[in-house]
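Protein modeling request. Please complete all fields; requests missing the sequence field cannot be processed.
Requester role: graduate student
Desired output: 3D structure, token encoding
Chains: 1
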Amino acid sequence: MFKLAAAIALFSAPLQAANFQLDAVTANDLTAAEVSLPQAQEPEAALDKAGVLTSLHLMPQAVRSRLLSFGTPAQFAEFTAVWNPILQEAGMVIGEVTYEADIQLGIVNYSSADGLVLRRLIADRLNYDALNPTEMHNLKTEMETALAKNGLPVKASFYVKSDALRPTFVIYYVTKGDENDDHEKQMRILKKGEDIDYDLLESAGVNIIRRDNSFTMLYIGKELGFKSKVATDEASAAQKLEDYKKFLAENDKEFLGSRTHKLTEPFTVGETTYNYLLNMYFYQ
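Delivered output (284 residues):
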């Protein structure tokens, strides 16, 4: 079980996104200029009556108290025709609406007297049969039910049919905002390529919603961090753990727990043989 991933943990470089990035814009990137927008048209082409999105300009990023949509001015007008009513029904007050023509970025600012914000989860990283509508429907219902039970009411959800993604769905829900969205109570996916120590996280109080598979977990709460390191022996693993806990404390991260696994197939690099894998969990 603990074989190839250990080698990856030691030697792999970060993967670079090849093409489309769904979360390419962050709160620090927003410098929008107001322009006049064309009159909104009925969004029949990009959002069919069955609630299926066929164009990603209607699937906005949710950043701070803003919704971001990439597209032409006409597409942004279509976007506001769909999303302004959703925001209003969620109890939000729509503020400044801007469009930055040079990068085709539209922004809808909103506010809430209670500090509530809209957040998004795209399900494509979860484990399901994308060609089985019943399985997708059941997963979507399970996730919406879990959000409601945890005080995060769903305000919009759509199935998504796009060349940029396998068949999937997206859920928008309300939570309490924070200056650091890593600290917000959100539905999140932990998927780092290594088997997850579910019992450790459960004991640490993590609200696990779905044990999707051995290396993919759906949960609700603050953003989980994960770091793995390989070691030659248990003493080396213990020292690496202490060094990393010190690093976390210096960076105001909350350590949750760790586990050291003996590799079923040790591997050698040069004259060094690695026999153990150290998994560490923390809150960002």
